[in-house]
Each structure stands twice: as C-alpha cells, then as structure tokens.
Amino acid sequence: MSILNIHGQQIKLGDTCVIKLRVGKLPSGNRIDIHGHVFRAREEGPLLLFTAGIHGDEINGIEILRRALSRGLFRQLQRGTVVVIPLLNVYGFINFSRDVPDGKDVNRSFPGNASGSLASRVARALTKEVLPLVDAGMDFHTGGRNHYNYPQLRYSKGDAAARELAQRVGAPVLLGSSLIKGSLRHTAHKMGKTILVYEGGENQRLDGLAIQHGLAALQRMLEVHDMLPSGFTQVIEHPHTRLFERSSWVRAKVPGIFEWSKCSGQPVLKGEPLGWIRHPEGEKEQWVLSKQNGFIIGHNNSPVVNSGDALFHIGYT
Ligand SMILES: [Zn+2]
Hints:
13-stranded mixed β-sheet, four-stranded antiparallel β-sheet, 19 strands, about 20% helix, binds zinc ion
C-alpha cells in the first residue's frame, strides 16, 4: 500500500516517523505512550514488526532494538516497511518489573480491551493499531528472574510456515513451543501472522551473547524477506543451529544452596550430573542429574532454591 495509516498517521513510501500510541497516564498525571518507529522503503514489500519490553524487566531485547535503531540498520531497507517498538511495557520498565503495576502480564492479556486493565489496554493498542498491518514479526524476551535462556528462537509447534521461517532466520537453538493463550504470538497466529519469539539471557541483566545473537537474528529476518540491499556489508553468517520440538525441566528435589556444574549451551547425557544442592549447615549434598540426552537451553542462576524450583531447561528430539 502506498500510504500506510497507523493510529491516524499517514506514512508514505520512503518516509520514516515515530508514532505514539496513547495507553494511559501515571497517577502523577504523566502520559504513557508506546513509541513505534516506522521505516518505509521507497519500494513496496512486507511489513515486519519488531517488539521488545513486553515484559518490562527483560532488558536485552530493548537493547537489541536500541542498537539496531542507533546503528541505522532500518535506514538500509530496500523494500517493505519495518515497525520497531523497543519498549512495549513502559510501566514495567520504570518499575523494574515484568508486569504492569496491578500485577497483570501484558503477554497474557492479548488481544486486549481498551477499557480493561492496564495490561489489557497496552495489548489492545498493539492488536488494534499495528497487528492488522503486519506480515510477520519477532518479539524479544529474556528468561525471568535468575533464569538464563541460551539464545533461541521459538516458533509455534505444529505451524510448518513458522518453523520454516525460524529455520531460515536461524539461531543457536530453535524451539517448537506451544502457543500460550493471551500471548502476542497466539493472537497474531489467530490473525494468520507469524511472530517468532527470540529468548536470550535473563531479566535485569545485559548479556553480550544474547544481544549479539538477537541482533544477528533480527538482521537475518530482514534478509530472508529480501528487504536489505544485495551485498549489504553487515551480512551475518547463519549460525550452527540445533532444533528441538520437545523440552522439559529438571527441578530441585530438595531445598538448599544450588550450584550448577553444567549450564546453558552444553550438551548433556541421561544421568549426567548437572549440579548440586547442599544443606546450608553441613556437608549433606544431593546431585542434580539429567533425565535425558539433550542440550541445556536454559538454567537457573539462583544460589538458593526450594523444592520443585526449575533448575535446567533441557531441549531434546
Ligand atoms: Zn518475556
């Protein structure tokens, strides 16, 4: 389409602008807007959406999009349109929190409601104003508190087109995972649009490896949609990829002080020791063992764990 209309703003081919989606106000009266950076090439083509900070404390994704913006990557577009939203959940970001102030998770609140909870209003702004225009996208996340995720792209299990796109884009790990009700990926899927989820690192912590692989995946997403000029100087090699359609957690059988001996990015064998849990008052310790042959795609960095806590996320085939 030669004129793109987002939130009442008309954007012509070749134009670049920032749209501000109003979602509400703080109790102090300050306005909360979501900023969407729109880049249109002179030639028509697909519209890709890149989002981060839907969980406000997952900073790596925000940093990935910040670097892509500051390096002028999207100004290289030879065709199509890119919408970049580096910080979707402003409320969570300023409160160092995954959620919005009422405790609700934006990524469980899609498609959202304009008169609903804060999380629901944030979700609604994206669903109504942006998602209908999107052909495909990538949503950037990290593990939760103390949970490190090895750089990975997640696609909807059973969705052949999403799997193929993930394979073409590539990442150190590709994981087929079930759609979660209320998530951005779920709502987009129901609208016939593929959103890949990039996971890397843990919340509240910048991680160089996760940022590097996230930036590379973002650039390859543009390349596989033929949106960058041929011979683009920053072409990034497709990484060696491991694909898993199954994964499970190794959990703590006892509480105590936890120390891992294996971590994300390492292959493991069934029965192999992954770490220890020790009683804080003595020598008593219990090994944590792998339940199957596989590859560690996430691990827990907490030094103190309770029974049942998730310690290692193992991908396997
Ligand atoms: Zn997240």
